[in-house]
Amino acid sequence: MTVIPHEVLFGNPAYLKPEVSPDGRSLFFLAPHEGVMNVWTAPVGDPGAATPVTDDRGRGIRLFGVCHDNRTLFHLRDRDGDESWRLYLVDLATGAERCATPFDGVQARILTHNRRHPGTILLGLNRNRPNLHDVYRLDLATAELTEVATNPGYLSWIIDADLNVRGGTRMHPDGSLTIHVDDTVLEVPYEDVMTTRVLGFSADSSTYYLQSSIDANASRLFAVDVATGTHTLLAEHPVHDIRQVEVHPETGVPQAVIFAGDRDERLFLDETYAKDLDRITTALHHLDAEVYADRAAPVWTITAVTGAGPLLYYVYDPSREQLTYLFNHQPALDAYELARMEPFTFTARDGVPVHGYVTWPLNCSGPVPAVVNVHGGPWSRNFFGFDEEAQLLANRGYACIQVNYRGSTGYGKRFRNLGARQWGAAMHTDLLDAVTHLTTTSAIDPARVAIMGCSYGGYAALAGAAFTPDVFACAIDLCGPSSLLTMLAAGAPYRTPLTAFMYAQVGDPELDADMLWARSPLSRINDITIPILIAQGANDVRVPRSEAEQIVEALRHKGLPHEYLLFPDEGHGLARPHNRQTYYTAVERFLATHLSPKGPPCAPGTPPAVGETSSTASASSAP
């Protein structure tokens, strides 16, 4: 098996996020310029003639867009991961760049921009109060900012197609939410907050589209008549939540709904769009890919996501019914055989079905060493598709286990709310039960299992080391909290509107201090017996540097085995390619040392067969 270099997996992608200008003439995408991710442009029919539009020399550009005036490009940049995003405008005719929000310590959020108002962007800025974003109108021609709405305490704003502020969402101390639209209110119970929101308005602003799980387990799509308040059900799924609603770029009317299963499930609401996408998926059927369309321009950009290869990008001209290949996100990967992500299901110790994915090393027969790679959030999930970490692990001979533990999104509100106040408890035992299930099937070696993750996943790794060191041989934490009490007390001011949500989901420090401390890895420092690798961005405003350093100091004081990597120019996660390669070099060395491989981890054969089963995992160690 050929070793895939770190720079191929974790260096800059060759291409990323292509989009076509609103007039359909120019292609824009992210690509390295002088070693840093920047925006490039080319004629739609000649991507090889691309030239750079921006010249960032820092952490690189990740978010950009072409305005509907076909003259202005916008992008956001922060400073070394501090999340104080500034908005920059580039004149595509002259190449001149200017900062539209040159304010220290202020975070810019793009609220809306559309084809009906090509010269205007509405922004959210916490310029007046650090914990609340007011609404500002940005004139693209003059860069003039005008405040149009002062925040009365909203968590988010609701704005129609004519850029009128129609209301917002307000969170309450018990974690419930009120949605305000004009003079009407919708009370959202705590259990429905994460799956109920206004998605947008029709072009004439007479209808808004509501995603809601109220009175259902999984979120549904409704059209709501503004004048009468009448709700019309447009789409629902018996099990899975809505992942995405695809709307007509001019009318704003939903044309398809994507439901978040183990593989995406798309329900079409518009026959014309269904026929176009059928032509595209028929042309790409050999890839067994999930297909996504960006239809903001007359020529669409298409992304095909497979479980065993790089992202593939195309353009599609619906007027000609013509699909044209552009490039993949990392052509260097074409030289290597990649492993495939496969869904699996097991039943947790309390009878709850839990889903996840395993990426197996190629040409291996079990039992193989494994890494439980825990997703962050935790109110997110793993999806089917290309995953750099999974490919690294599989390429080095480890099974990469990614569990959508309770609390993860996509599987309905009952499953998601089973994760409430279960940090270090049932959310953790789901991970243990996945290991038990795969061990029972002889797929993995129980003596050679590691746990790793970022953010909540980093917390889970520390919890694995502190609560269940008998299950894991080593742990890797990137930007994970070590104490739930200090985590809840910290964070950037603009995150304070989420306080009630965090207290409801994790615990209230005043009412639940003992529970929160007991579920903090720092509280069980004396129980840690396995090696830990800890990595942290110095400028992290979500999980501050102190979360890493307090457990590192405790490990050092107790003489426990650990390594610590601090990245002075990073925030929550790692963006710079050099830092990413440094981190994953340490990860690979750490795993090779502490999983104690006994000779080659793989032998000729086939990956273990682990599909959808319902065998109940036996109880293993729990905190």
Structural descriptors:
single chain, 623 residues, alpha+beta, nine-stranded mixed β-sheet, four-stranded antiparallel β-sheet, 34% strand, globular, disordered C terminus
What's the layout of helices and strands?
Blueprint: H1 6-10, E1 16-20, E2 26-33, E3 36-43, E4 51-52, E5 63-66, E6 72-77, E7 86-91, E8 97-99, E9 108-112, E10 120-129, E11 132-139, E12 145-149, E13 156-159, E14 165-171, E15 177-181, E16 184-188, E17 197-201, E18 207-212, E19 220-225, E20 231-235, E21 242-247, E22 254-259, E23 265-268, H2 271-283, E24 290-294, E25 300-305, E26 312-317, E27 322-328, E28 341-347, E29 353-359, E30 368-374, H3 388-395, E31 399-404, H4 413-417, H5 426-440, E32 444-454, H6 456-467, E33 474-478, H7 484-489, H8 499-505, H9 513-518, E34 532-537, H10 545-558, E35 562-567, H11 577-594, E36 612-616
Parallel strand pairs: 28-36, 30-31, 30-32, 32-33, 33-34, 34-35
Antiparallel strand pairs: 1-2, 2-3, 3-4, 5-6, 6-7, 7-8, 9-10, 10-11, 11-12, 13-14, 14-15, 15-16, 17-18, 18-19, 19-20, 21-22, 22-23, 24-25, 25-26, 26-27, 28-29, 29-31
Domain Peptidase S9 prolyl oligopeptidase catalytic: 386-596
Region (Disordered): 595-623
Keywords: Hydrolase
